[in-house]
User: Fold this.
Amino acid sequence: MLYGVVVTYLPKSCDHALLAGRCIKVLHGFMSRHSISNIAVSFPKWSQTSVGKQLMFISPLVDQLNTLIQQPYYQMMTENGLFEISDPIILEQSITCVKYVRNQSIDKLTPAAKARRLRRAKKRALERGEEFNPVDAQPKEVDFYHSIPMDSSQSGRAYMLKIQRYEIDFPKKEDIFNTCSYGLSTNSRYQALLPI
Assistant:
């Protein structure tokens, strides 16, 4: 059984990705502090233009959700009339599920990342006394994604979470509910199938 808590952003005009990033940052700290990996993030209003004005936290443990939404950031945003947070609800089983995947490989396709890799490759070639002859990489197709702005509490550096949405029909019952500390699935290790 899975439980969900819906966070709705109330301002009519706001940056949904920015607010999602702040919510995910609090979740990341919460999950890291408590060494847990079973709270997932869902975007019920996801579209081609936006992550939507809602974010849902999903977990098999309702007590963890209740503790999460008591974090000061969520309380402050609710008290200031910027968020509406639902009571936990039981999520029905579905024949179609969705997973939200953090895809870090997209970062390697940016012009800055390509230039960085070329500089490193050139330096290594010159250190070995070899001629540097880069080969043009074939362009890769990437499924649609949204970028969510984040910043590191430790380094203060800004970065983007690249998130993709995939629907899965007829998920297996034995699928494990395990997320990274951002509440997302990954391409390899972490998987959380969420009811639509």
